[in-house]
Write a structure and sequence with these properties.
It is a single chain. By secondary structure, the chain is an alpha+beta fold. The protein has one domain (about 1-105). About 25% of the residues lie in helices and about 40% in strands. It is built from one helix and five strands; from the N terminus they run E-E-E-E-E-H. It is elongated, with a radius of gyration of 15 Å. The two termini are about 15 Å apart.
């Protein structure tokens, strides 16, 4: 039904750690559900200028299937950002498990 796919990437100037969620049959995700959650670390020229943040998207609870709300959350460092991503992933996995049960009975 649902797939949670890892999004991990690393280069000399950037690191990404996160996931995206989608339905395998191509249908839209349920309204209000997190569809992606990614930590980003941008390595600058100078150590003090590094930037770490999380970007996440939520399927709009009021719009059509293509509408999403996108948010950015600053973080202290990449380890903190990865920890937050992991906790949200646990929550999304539990939520998708519940949605799966509801769909079986509807």
């Amino acid at each position: 039904m649902y797939t949670i796919e890892e999004n991990i990437y690393e280069s000399e100037t950037m690191k990404v750690y996160g996931f995206m969620v989608y339905r395998r049959d191509g249908r839209s995700m349920p309204k209000g559900v997190i569809t992606s959650f990614n930590a980003y670390f941008h390595s600058p020229k100078y150590e003090f200028d590094s930037k770490t943040h999380i970007e996440f998207a939520v399927a709009s609870p009021t719009g059509d299937s293509s509408d999403h709300y996108n948010y950015t959350m600053p973080c202290l460092d990449f380890n903190q950002a990865k920890w937050i991503v992991d906790k949200y992933r646990e929550g999304v996995e539990a939520m998708m498990s519940e949605y799966k049960k509801q769909e079986l009975y509807s």
